[in-house]
Amino acid sequence: MRIVLIGPPGAGKGTQAKRLTELLGVPHLSTGDMLRDAMRKGTEAGQQAAPFMKTGRLVPDDLVHQLVLERVAQADCANGYLLDGFPRTAAQAIMLDKMLAERKTPLDLAVLIQVPKDVLLERLAGRGRQDDDELVIVKRLEQYDELTHPMAAYYQGRGTLREIDGLGSPEEVFARIETELNGARH
């Protein structure tokens, strides 16, 4: 299965992605991890992304698109993958769909994990990552809100969006996701 996992920073996407990839036997493709890795390694893409990530701004579409294209072309993605962090905008979602249509490998599902903003702020404040200081967190959540609604509407229109309540234990959230996956398979 080819799945896009959508949710604000702090929604638990990383936790759920790990469970989903184990269940489905597909790789977890986190653009955030890809970008942080590129920054650590000092690659050209990492150097271009650094000023955006350090100030909480979104990395330009063409740069992220290039990273994703290279990654989904690798052999371990032949039977599917879980994309996390891309697409972030309706334009990126359309670009991704075009790319996948050219390869005759359409997206199966877009899973949106919903969590109230106050809970997100609390979760992120306790995470302690370098890119999680309070001002950066607030900026990232604002950008997420602005961009996600049109993207969710796009996937809703295509019939691939599944909205999941992200409150509760990781096990409860995963059970909700699994229910939606099972429904999509039939």
From TrEMBL:
A Pfam family (short name) is ADK
Compartment(s): Cytoplasm
Q: Which SUPFAM superfamilies match?
A: P-loop containing nucleoside triphosphate hydrolases (SSF52540)
Q: Cross-referenced InterPro entries, in alphabetical order?
A: Adenylat/UMP-CMP_kin, Adenylat_kinase_CS, P-loop_NTPase
Q: Name one GO cellular component term.
A: cytoplasm
Q: Which residues bind AMP?
A: T31, R36, R57, L58, V59, G85, F86, P87, R88, Q92, R129, R140
One GO MF term on file is:
AMP kinase activity
Q: Biological process (GO) annotations?
A: AMP salvage
Give the enzyme class: transferase
Q: Which PROSITE patterns match?
A: ADENYLATE_KINASE
Q: What is its pathway?
A: Purine metabolism; AMP biosynthesis via salvage pathway; AMP from ADP: step 1/1
> Could you tell me which residues belong to the region NMP?
30-59
Could you tell me what reaction this enzyme catalyses? AMP + ATP = 2 ADP
Entry remark concerning the domains of this protein: Consists of three domains, a large central CORE domain and two small peripheral domains, NMPbind and LID, which undergo movements during catalysis. The LID domain closes over the site of phosphoryl transfer upon ATP binding. Assembling and dissambling the active center during each catalytic cycle provides an effective means to prevent ATP hydrolysis.
Quaternary form?
Monomer.
Report the HAMAP family cross-referenced here: Adenylate_kinase_Adk
Protein's name according to its UniProt entry: Adenylate kinase
Q: To which species is this protein native?
A: Lacipirellula limnantheis
